[in-house]
Amino acid sequence: MFGLSNWSMHKSWDLITIFVLVALVASCGQLAATPTPIPSPTPAPAPKVAPTMETTPQAKEAKPEAKEARPQAKEPAKAVKGLLKLKVPFTSVAGTNSIPWMAKEKGLFEKYGLDVELQYTPQSHTVPAAMMSGEVVIAQGSGDATINANLAGGDFVFLAVMANVLTFSMYATPEIKRVEDLKGKVIGVSNIGGTVEYGARWVLKKYGLEPGKDVAIVAVGGNPEAIAAMKAGGVQAGIFGVPNTVKARQAGMHELVGFFELGVPYPMVSVITRKPYLAANEEVVRNFLKAYLEGIAVAKKDKEFAKKVIGKYSQTEDPEALEETYEYYITKIFPKAPYPKTEAIQAVLDQIAVQNPKASEVKPETYIDSRILKELDESGFINNLYPN
């Protein structure tokens, strides 16, 4: 199949995509709806805000000068009940995003003068647009979405990064024993152009396979759809994060390779803001990071509380899934001081540069501002969170 002309290759992938879609429809009875996390209750009704974070004409026209309209760090007393209200998006219900949940459920944001409303926003590319409009000022977002937004004229910076490598795993059907066995096969990813596809391409190249030539990559939707497609035979491999790895194993799939063990560079689980907002509201950012860092400490020191919170937001009571999520992210991956790393951002810039030459002109350090994190680290704030 791989000696065909480009026209034939495109036809082949089209047929594969059609087959995957048919397999998904045939397997619809096996699919489970992606759970929506239960939002943490707030002490008082929040002011009305826009119901969605989709890109709007107003968001597209917003200029950096809009920062003057945002709340100032020196005046938190003017906010509701003496707390400065912030809406903070997170982009998945996986364990990767669990630290803001910890801070919210433990009352840490309130401890540092903030009334934070956590908002599940699965379309990561809409987060920068919401921030440009002023609707959101701090977010836990996607590395590639942030970098692409900067290349399009944005002014975002990485304040902290919980993992500077991808934390997914590639799972396969039983007959696929090695990554090399995927030659002539199909990998299902959530969407084309996102983090998961980036990881799939990186791993295939590492094992000597050319994405799109040796191995087809098709969008199949979320993890339930990927599992259904694998069971139906439409695809032979998929990319999963904990705890969906448990569901993949329960469906008869096995892990081919772990991205974390390979060290696939990527700024995953990133805390971001805009440069103008940081310049005008440094104390707000400092207090947010204090709550965030203490949330990491709470998770690491109180396993049962952390598992309970993860279960609440991911809507699962599966003890195996909760245990694996905790041990993988909280114990193994999350650092006490989550510094962004230039090599992780550079890796994404290199990938984007294939289609956008402008990315090759960017120095990754210009997208990082870890001054406040470093200050909190060197002052002893972080160490004091772990007295034992």
Which features would summarize this protein structure in a list?
alpha/beta, globular, 388 residues, D-Maltodextrin-Binding Protein, domain 2
What does this structure look like?
The chain is α/β, with parallel strands linked by helices. The chain has two domains: 6-28 and 167-262, Periplasmic binding protein-like II (D-Maltodextrin-Binding Protein, domain 2); 82-164 and 275-384, Periplasmic binding protein-like II (D-Maltodextrin-Binding Protein, domain 2, 3-Layer(aba) Sandwich), CATH 3.40.190. Helices cover 43% and strands 15% of the residues. It has helices spanning 6-26, 57-61, 98-105, 108-111, 126-133, 143-151, 195-206, 223-232, 244-250, 259-262, 275-280, 282-301, 303-314, 319-333, 342-353, 371-378, 381-384, and strands at residues 84-90, 114-120, 138-141, 156-165, 169-172, 186-189, 216-219, 237-240, 254-258, 265-274. It has a five-stranded mixed beta sheet, sandwiched between helices. A three-stranded antiparallel beta sheet has the order 3-10-4. A two-stranded parallel ribbon has the order 1-2. Strand 6, helix 7 (195-206) and strand 7 form a beta-alpha-beta unit. The longest helix is centred in the first third of the chain and has 21 residues, at 6-26. Mean pLDDT is 81; it is low at 1-80.
